[in-house]
Amino acid sequence: MHATKPDRACLEQLAYSQDGYFTAREAADCGFSPQLLHHHVRSGRLERERRGLYRLRHYPRSTHADVRAKWLACGPESIVSHESALDLLGLSDVIPGRVHITVPRRRRGVRAPQGVALHTTTRPTRSDVVWRDGIAVTAPARSIVESAAAGTAPEQIEMAVAQALSRGLTTAGRLREAAGESRVAFAIERAIARAQGAG
Known about the structure:
This protein is α+β, with helices and mostly antiparallel strands. It folds into two domains: 8-56, no CATH class; 65-198, no CATH class. The chain is 44% helix and 17% strand. The chain is built from nine helices and eight strands. The protein has helices spanning 8-16, 24-29, 34-43, 65-73, 82-89, 140-149, 154-166, 172-179, 185-198; strands at 21-23, 46-50, 53-56, 79-80, 99-104, 116-121, 129-132, 135-138. The strands form three sheets. The protein has a three-stranded antiparallel β-sheet with strand order 1-3-2, with helices on both faces. Helix 6 runs antiparallel to helix 7 and helix 7 packs across helix 9 (185-198). The model has no long low-confidence stretch (mean pLDDT 90).
């Protein structure tokens, strides 16, 4: 429901929960028209990151601010995935070169922001999502399997499996279920065996 007049507290509270970022749609819900946003950009109170995405100019940037900005820019059904999910989950030492985002297949025509590797899926995602610092992220088992399938180094996958199991973030059964009969199933099974052998 849209506010009838600009509610600064509403917008600031929302932005504070998202590293200072908010979308034009979220701003409209707090009563800020596109014209008013433009005015605040010109006055220096706001920064326009890209079309439809804004940021409070003086809000301090956090470690994952760039990931959050790109996730928000991809729309409400987007999920941080693959190596970017491993990074947010603290699994492995992988350093993603781009921010990996997964969207439903029906949105495959969406234009990816610069620096985003956009993936599409037909798989239901609700049960495969966890939240980290207010960001939707693929669950550990799915993140590991999708990263392996996308070519993440085997030693990073083995490290991610060992860490996820030792921290109770997933189970061997969930990893096997996520791998199914895919081409990475053997690599996942080997990583599970090594992790359990070391434990």
